[in-house]
Amino acid sequence: MLNEIAFLLLASLTLAGAVAAMMLRNLVHCALCAAGAFAGLAALYLQLNAEFAGFAQLLVYVGAVAILIVFTILLTRGAEIQPGGTTASPSWWMGVPVGALVAACLVGSIMSSPSLLRLPSQNVQAPVKSIGEQLMTQYIMPLEAIGLLLTAALLGAVVIAMREPPKSEPAAR
Amino acid sequence: MSGLDQIFVGIGHGLAGWAPASVRPLVAAVLEIAGIMAVFGSCFALTTIVERKVLGRMQNRYGPNRVGPCGLLQPLADGIKMLTKEDIVPFSADKTVHFLAPLALTVPVWLAFAVLPFGRNMSAIELNSGILFFFAIGSASELAVFMAGWSSQNKYSLVGAMRAIAQMISYEVPLVLSTVPVLMLAGSLSLNDIVAAQGTYTFGGLARWNVFTPWGLAGLLLFLIAATAESNRSPFDLPEGESEIIAGFLTEYSGFKYALFFLGEYLGLFALTGLAVTLFLGGWHAPFQWLEWAPSWLWFGIKFGALIFLFIWVRATLPRLRLDQLLNFSWRFLTPLSLINLLVAAAWYWTGAWKSAAAPPVRWLLCAALIALPYHWLGQALRGASPPPRKYNYAE
Amino acid sequence: MNGAGIIKGMIETARNFAGSYHDSKRLTTVQYPEEKLAPVENARTIPFLVYDGGDAMPGLRCTACMICEKECPPQCIYIVKDQVKKPDFVGKMQMQPKVFDIDISVCMSCGICVEVCPFDAIKMDQVFELSTNDRFGGLLLNKTQLAKPNEYFNKLHKTEASEIDARRIEEKQKAEAAAAAKAAAPKPPAAPGGAK
Amino acid sequence: MSASTTTVELAERAPENQLLEVSLGPQHPSTHGVFRMDVALDGETVVKLKPVFGYLHRNHEKIAEKCSYLGSMPYTDRLDYICSLTNNWAYALTVEKLAGLVAPERAEYIRVILSELTRLINHSALAGFLLQDMGALGTPLMYAFREREKILDLFESLTGARMMCNYMRFGGCRCDLPPGWIEQARSLVAEFPKFLDEFEALLTGNEILLARTEGVGVLPAKLAVNAGVTGPMLRASGVNYDIRKVDAYGVYGRFKFRVPLGERGDVFDRYMLRILEMRESLKILDQAMRDLPGGPIMDPKAKLRNLRPKPGEAYGRIEGPKGELGFYLISDGGPNPYRYRVRPPSLINLTILEDMCLGQTIADAVVILGSVDIVLGEVDR
Description:
The structure holds 4 protein chains of 4 kinds. Chain C is built from 7 helices and 6 strands. Chain C is 36% helix and 18% strand. A 3-stranded mixed beta sheet of chain C has the order 4-1-6. Chain C has a 3-stranded antiparallel beta sheet with strand order 2-3-5. Helix content of chain D is 47%, strand content 13%. The two termini of chain D are 36 Å apart. Chains in contact: A-B, A-D, B-C, B-D, C-D. At the B-D interface, helix 8, helix 11, helix 13, helix 14 and strand 1 of B face strand 1, helix 5, helix 6, helix 8 and strand 6 of D.
């Protein structure tokens, strides 16, 4: 019984955070609500006893990605609120059917996928040690690929952020 | 021995016994939480007064001694003052975020205590990925610092917040990397297993703590330096560099919110000190075999107090680093050193198989050299071509 | 070694920390209200008027010559002369101040009034607990509040006070000898005026 | 961060609107009094810096024109309130030049002893405050103040006040040394080197201090000379100019002491200069106390009260702890000076603050201001 209440609570919090991240005017508030949504998601993982996934989510998303989002908001446009802009654009009614279509095909593919059919075995214990071994043996290729991808992204970010030294760029900014 | 040692565990079980069976686990959990919050709450109050008295003694003065016997009621006086002080929220500040920031900082830090083993089977939760939980919770504090700095809408707090985030992110890397050798050698992420791994005793009854190995000593030093930076303490207290930007992200806070930030900072320090004791100083194990009779939580307390004294001692002595030096220090000195520390730990592990009599000292020296040389070269590289020592000529 | 300087500094603070428990030179705090520093003879805070004998007003040495009022840099002394004259310690008739106020909130305790006073009438006190709850009246001391006996002056500045007393006694004897001589030589004069 | 980036190149780094205007206002923990710096920051780097002062202006020079010569002597204590005795001496020296008075031997020796003790106070307090700006929470400052208290007790037992001494008169000193004063001073001078070694052990080798001060706020010798900078700041840039050697006023000619000179003129040199100058002052104090003559301490024909020097002008200067402290007096024969002008070393050393701080970070700007050693009483007069 306790589990269901906790699940409902956490799920509603996460959804509220996600919706708020979309609806609020002030950009920094949106970023913080997004961080709240990430934390809610991490709590859901923990509820399913997937400790490693939950803590990794908390560490990566709430620790780093949230700060990244907030920094990008600050450094690019700042958090000024566009005066008078309504949250929903005038042609919102065009969006509803497109949204419904995407939702339909998503639900369809989930329902028909084989993984749902198998009865989920009781809380499978996934200690960190076995995850570590799997990562290093069976999934070694995806891990290395992700590593390369992230380093490339890091280098790209550094190049963009670096301010060109004044001498090489004659024209004023 | 086990009577006094298990005294708290016994009390816990006794009290939980009275509760009806269905809700017993809940009551046990609440008791543990209450225990941790009581102990570390009073430890926070005690540390504020001990810090001011030790700082005073190091500066040839007494430190607070007017409130209560030799100043022991000073935290009570500070608490009342903080509660009664008016809580000013600047007009242009973003009210909600300004209000949430201290909470967002303090709540995660309380969670970090759940996983630390304070004594024999005295840790609130036994997670098999304890350290990951600890660092996941620890990383949430940056967001809180940003919320505080940005919401005060004040130049000084914005500069302070930016400094704080840059510092915390760049010092999280060496903090985590310096714990990896311990995990590698202990073979598990759970803190209880790590403490158990340090439980055996070598010749002469000396405990087999990690700090007596070269990579352990280097790891402890790296961890303590990174911990000072994580909790914004003295050589790295740039975020609230009083002499430059008043109180950094704390400028616009007063009254109880300021006290909450203060509490959050100290609890962060306690959590990191607790982790340092668990990882490197053998958790609640006694230093020598013949000292095993003392209760285990007492050893944890003694080591914890020693490290807190070390932090206060460093705060009394060292001036503050500049921001660019601070970041250089982390990225060009601490992080490479902690990576090299991994190699040293690996070397220690492979040379473990030597059987000859002279193996332990040779092995120790070999690994120590493996870490000392890079320490010297990186230090020279960091300070750049150190200018020749200044000679001052005199005019008659 | 890279960290050598920092470690030397840490040892220094540790020595001070340990020293503060046993070495008096390392702990120099005086707990003010309970312990008080020994009074320093030359110390000066605010001026006070010296009077001889038991009674304050007639015994005042001040002859309202207004030199200190002119010389005081912040002009914090206010004197009004009194028509009635009174004899001084040698018997000569001297003026006396009807009003003698010092505004100690303006006074910067420089001691120039003491230097320029020809009659050793004003000296520097050593009391520093001067806090009052009234900013104007409380800090404006009038003649009666300023007057203090010569014994108090002797207690504060012993060497200077003993010199002045010696000089005054010697002058008094010289004046009495002159008066006696004048009395003995010509026809018997009126009784000598020396009033105690 | 090369300190010599010119202003043009800096201004081009970030457009005007992105600069963060911060006023390190009069209400700031590390401006050594009521002094304001309007700083334009590009990130952490100082791009523009405008010093604003005048908050502590007390109209000292106009008041002096109304006061008698003796009357403005206590006001000179309030100029540089950390070293009041050197202010007194400079003023007394100038009036003696104006009125043609000569102080007796014993008074001259006492003046040298007191001004060297004041130099010890000022330099140790400066080193303490400099470390306070760098973030060492009070430890060096408390050690410096522990020594300063001993010297202030000496001043109190001699002149009557710890900081506002008002001790020197035209043609000598106000009162002679009380018994036991010289022995106490001698024991203090004997113990002082131990404190200096302790201070240096705590600080000079400290890597963080070296990192924070080397190459920061470099003052080229040419700029220092052109800007009229004097005192330890000038000597830290390597220019050999010490008025005690140049003028040899008072009895300084009889003492053997050396003048330390810096090499690169950065904040570390200025800090080190002060420590070395303290050691030299100790040498002077030893020699002065050894051959302190007896005799009167006041020129008998010096009149205390209505001193009316004959019309004319005089400029007397001494080597104050902060630099060349000068007084320029014009007398029209009346009891008070016609014109009374003070040459404040702190103010003149402060004019080049912007040149030193450009290109440095805001943390450095605070440390550079600390190394300039200003006292707002003297800057604003």
